[in-house]
Specification:
There is one protein chain. The protein is α/β, with parallel strands linked by helices and 162 residues long. It has a single domain, classed as Alpha/beta knot. A 6-stranded parallel sheet has the order 3-2-1-5-4-6. Strand 2, helix 2 and strand 3 form a beta-alpha-beta unit. The longest helix has 15 residues. It is globular.
Length: 162
Amino acid sequence: MLNNKLEIVLFHPLIPQNTGNIGRLCVNTNVRLNLIKPLGFSLEEKYIRRSGLDYWQHLELKVHECWNDFLSMTDRSSLFFFSTKTDRFFWDCPYTSDNNNTPAYLIFGSESSGLSKEIYEEYSDRLYTIPMFGAHSRSYNLSNSVSTVLFEGLRKQHYQLI
């Protein structure tokens, strides 16, 4: 049964192994994965299949042609962005939409450039980060970040395992 309270969104993902790992995570947590084109790979590539293993066939996947196509099916209150470009921590994210019929969309940028400048400007009040303490920190691996954020969202929503 699909968890209809949370969805993962990858904005212009570049690395198929990350997307495959995230797809596997989504299958195991009953969460839909949304991909915003352009993608840095083909969904037919062996790298997706290898990292997603035999889970990929069970993935609830929605591919959007562009950011505006995705926006046309959502409302602003359901969008939460995760980035290194803020000082608001991911555990402070509400992980819920103002509209109970709409899932909370947890949105992550591409591995090399993050989100677009326009998204950073328009949604600056909806940005959250995972803290980094290392002297040489720039960012975490995308699939690790998605996992960290998703499990915090599930915890906040008192996810039932059975």
